[in-house]
Every structure is written in structure tokens, then in C-alpha cells.
């Protein structure tokens, strides 16, 4: 039988988890499944083949590291909280994670539905569309040059120094026309 690499075995573990996760009904079951996946991954990383004192030692160390995060930076504070909860109360960890995802999703939806603040290019396009509704991209480029914008194949720069990609004009003009109309 062929020897599988760490990555191959890890991939199989993850695939197995994802298959089994579909049948999970409670936060408790999901939390325990996630914790088990982490423990199995650590056992794999330490090249442990089966139960025994060495596996118990690795499991204890893994749980300790999950609960007392010291290696992660401040940008991972949320993950630290989830890991800590996972060790103490797996169901609470899954509820907390689900609520955080829902809260973030609601925030993003609210932000997506709010009007965008106009940058210099957006303001110029809106002003031009007010008196030229059938504005085209070439005409927009000419108008920007007339208004002392730097327009070349590599960049577009406003007199105030804002930089824009030359490829964005067509999309920005399309969106502005759609909003106006």
C-alpha cells in the first residue's frame, strides 16, 4: 500500500469532516466535530498512529494551546475566542461563530445598500451626465484632459492627486448612467 503524504491525509480528514458535517444537527455536535478535526490534525502532524499515552499527551497540549493562545497576533483575536470556547463549550463556540458571521453579513449588506461616497472621478462623471446623458468613454477622457486631469495609458490622476486605473472609466461611466437613470 502506498504511503500518503501529510497533505493528502490532511485533505482526506477535511473531506471526511465536510461529508459528516452535513448530517450534524446541533451546535454541540458541530463543535465536537470541529474539535475532533483539530485533534486529529495535530495527531497527524505528530505522526501518531493510534491511541496511547503519546496521543493523550498531544491532545492535552493541543487543548492547552487552543485555550491559551500565545502565538497568534492581535488580528486573530476572534479566532482565539472561538478556540477558547471550543475547548470549554463546543456548542457555545459554534453559536458564537454563527452569530458573528450573521452580524458581519448584516453589516456588509447594510454597507452595500448605502450610497457610495463619490470620489473626484465620480463627481466629474455625475456633473457631466447632468448635461450630457449620452456621454461616451472617449468623450469622458477628453473632458478629463480639458479639466487638467492627467490621462494616459498607465494612469488617470486628478488635479488633487487621486489615482485611478485607466481601465475603470468604462465601468464607472456605466454605473453612473445606471444610477442616474
What would you note in describing this structure?
With 181 residues, the chain is mainly alpha-helical. The protein has helices at residues 6-21, 27-45, 53-67, 77-88, 90-113, 120-131, 137-146, 168-180, and strands at 150-151, 156-157, 163-164. The chain has a three-stranded antiparallel β-sheet, covered by helices on one side. The radius of gyration is 27 Å and the shape is elongated.
Oligomeric form: single chain
With strands numbered from the N-terminus, the spatial order across the biggest sheet is 1-2-3
Q: Taking all residues together, what is the mean pLDDT?
A: 87
Helix content: 55-70%
Shape: elongated
Give the number of helices: 8
Q: Write the element-wise H/E pattern from the N-terminal end onward.
A: HHHHHHHEEEH
* Unreliable residue stretches: none
Distance between the termini: 66 Å
Characterize the biggest β-sheet.
3 strands, antiparallel
List the helices and strands and how they pair.
Blueprint: H1 6-21, H2 27-45, H3 53-67, H4 77-88, H5 90-113, H6 120-131, H7 137-146, E1 150-151, E2 156-157, E3 163-164, H8 168-180
Antiparallel strand pairs: 1-2, 2-3
Helix pairs in contact: 1-2, 2-3, 2-5, 4-5, 6-8
